[in-house]
Amino acid sequence: MKTRFIEPGSPWENGHCVNFNGKLRDQLLAREQLDSLLEASVLLERRRRHYNTVRPHSSLGCRIPSPACNQLA
């Protein structure tokens, strides 16, 4: 596997990043009025844990990560 160079100012060359950022914006940031940095940190951490441990992953055959993985998060 080789590292690919992405031109500065060309985020569309990395579809995974653009897709993730769009979903984050639509599902969290556009729906919330964040009053402080602490509130933003708490909401983002809650979403990160859900995204990585509870949400079904297509790469796992639409199953949730194993219980062992849940204990690591």
List low-confidence stretches.
Answer: none
Overall geometry = flat
H-E string: HHH
- The amount of beta strand, in percent, is under 5%
Q: Tell me the structural class.
A: mainly alpha
Q: What kind of sheet is the major sheet?
A: none
Radius of gyration: 15 Å
Number of domains: 1
Number of helices: 3
Instruction: Count the E strands.
Output: 0
**Mean pLDDT value:** 75
State the separation between the terminal residues, measured CA to CA: 27 Å
Helix content: 40-55%
Domain Integrase catalytic: 2-65
GO biological process, one term: DNA integration
GO molecular function: nucleic acid binding
Organism: Pseudobythopirellula maris
Q: What does this 3D model show about the protein?
A:
The structure is a single chain. The protein has 73 residues and is mainly alpha-helical. It has one domain (14-69). The chain has 3 helices and no strands. It has helices at 15-29, 37-54, 67-72. It holds the Pfam family rve_3.
